[in-house]
Amino acid sequence: MARVIRRPLLLAAVSVAVAVSLVRLAAAVRPFVLVLSVDDFLKDSSAHPSLPSADSAGADTDADEWDDFADDSPAADPLLSPSSWVPLLDPTSSPPSGDEPDSPADSLFVAGARAILSAASEGDDVAFVTASAQIEAAAAAGHPGAQSALAFLSGAGMTRPASRSRAFLLHKFAADAGDLQSKMAIAYSYFRQEMYEEAVKLYAELAEAALTSSLISKEPPVIEPIRLHSGTEENKEALRKSRGEDDEDFQITEYQAQRGNSAAMYKLGLLYYYGLRGLRRDYVKAFHWFSKAVEKGDTRAMELLGEIYARGAGVERNYSEAYKWLALAAKQQHYSAYNGLGYLYVKGYGVEKKNLTKAREYFKLAADNKEAGGHYNLGVLYLKGIGVKRDIMEACNHLLQAVNAGQPKAIYQVAKLFQKGIGLKKNLHMATMLYKSVAERGPWSSLSRWALESYLKGDVGKALLLYSRMADLGYEVAQSNAAWILDRYGDQSICMGESGFCTDMERHLRSHALWWQASEQGNEHAALLIGDAYYYGRVCITILQLAEIHKVGYNL
């Protein structure tokens, strides 16, 4: 405990990380640095109403809020909710079907959203207006997805006067009905206005949904936020590496794997398992290539096979097989496999019985070898007192080291510590920032893949629409990508304004607003452009227009 308190400074850099352990969810986020001093730690963290009593330490309290080892898979994939655009973008997806037929509002929303995407692709302003009217009719009938989409159109000023206050109200209606994308938009609105009491609650809910949904979603837990531009120029190298199976590097790797190269087999397994570099996530192909790699003697794939069997990802769940492969990987000194073994002993899966002592030993072996999952799970044990004496500062020490490696669940837990003031002094701004970084891994982030895919196919209109939609949810990369498209392709008919295609003024205002939002989130290129615009007098707007640019919502 003293080891943490006496450190004059603790740096936790949240960076891009690809995870391969059983309870570590891979994710890619924009890097930032969390700097903590001794003043951020509480001197007395022995008791807090959110923690279980000391008498219950080590007891079987899976229902407790702080038990991270619960079976918390969501019952349904949020990607396939009635409000999702994914079934409209992915021909292999279909909305969830129930016993009751779709309502008229459902049909209007689906038809309108599909027509808007088509109109954006074809640059058809008349069709765009007609589609917007369908969405507005569905919204009037109370459809939350339509209300969310109409809020986006209203905020951007597409086919109607721009009104952030109306957009906020529509998002509020949709969010109250359970629409997660509108909850993201409202949380971002509160965040921009420094209303952290409100923002933190929404982002906490969304962060939890993001973590649990990744357990069953067919979308990858790694949504790579590809920036279309490097400065003012197109980011050709990043785009080249995002073409999936059409990428030359992928084709070379696939050829080598087919020729028996075990390293290439393992790499292909990773690409398919996590859905990297523009590939669709495919558990069956991942399992195939990992199995081939193991047959060729590549021991790294053993751990992934263990994880696949434990999760039932593309195969029938089998904890005995999971234990076998994780144990084999551990014998080869793949220390993240120790973390997986610890998890099995905590749950009593694939082993004779639960054994918290063994679980802690395995987690410690993983942590001692700089495995983020081991630090995270040790942090949870010490935080709750599972099989050990509760030690909040020791928990903070381990959780912060896991945060340093970009472990999403650790980021979520540290956010909760800041929110509730457990071990760390209550700091809602910090909690909001951390929750936001996890929430942005949610299934709604899959729109970025479709936006990128559209751009790579030359469908700039659809790419702009999808990036603009994500910008409304607070994604900095989407904000800068949409702004760059508006600047780069300003001569093309892709920007929808209040009445028909954007005027030059509408396009400049929208681009300026997007760059401004990106600059607020640390985009240095955006900040430079905003500064240049004011310095050289390229911005000529009214006070009301300035208010619209710099605010996302109002206190209603």
UniProtKB/TrEMBL annotation:
<dbReference type="GO" id="GO:0036503">
    <property type="term" value="P:ERAD pathway"/>
</dbReference>
<protein>
    <recommendedName>
        <fullName>ERAD-associated E3 ubiquitin-protein ligase component HRD3A</fullName>
    </recommendedName>
</protein>
<dbReference type="Pfam" id="PF08238">
    <property type="entry name" value="Sel1"/>
</dbReference>
<keyword id="KW-0472">Membrane</keyword>
<keyword id="KW-0677">Repeat</keyword>
<keyword id="KW-0732">Signal</keyword>
<dbReference type="InterPro" id="IPR044623">
    <property type="entry name" value="HRD3"/>
</dbReference>
<keyword id="KW-0812">Transmembrane</keyword>
<keyword id="KW-0256">Endoplasmic reticulum</keyword>
<dbReference type="GO" id="GO:0005789">
    <property type="term" value="C:endoplasmic reticulum membrane"/>
</dbReference>
<dbReference type="InterPro" id="IPR011990">
    <property type="entry name" value="TPR-like_helical_dom_sf"/>
</dbReference>
<keyword id="KW-1133">Transmembrane helix</keyword>
<feature type="compositionally biased region" description="Acidic residues">
    <location>
        <begin position="61"/>
        <end position="71"/>
    </location>
</feature>
<dbReference type="InterPro" id="IPR006597">
    <property type="entry name" value="Sel1-like"/>
</dbReference>
<comment type="similarity">
    <text>Belongs to the sel-1 family.</text>
</comment>
<feature type="region of interest" description="Disordered">
    <location>
        <begin position="48"/>
        <end position="105"/>
    </location>
</feature>
<feature type="compositionally biased region" description="Low complexity">
    <location>
        <begin position="72"/>
        <end position="97"/>
    </location>
</feature>
<keyword id="KW-0325">Glycoprotein</keyword>
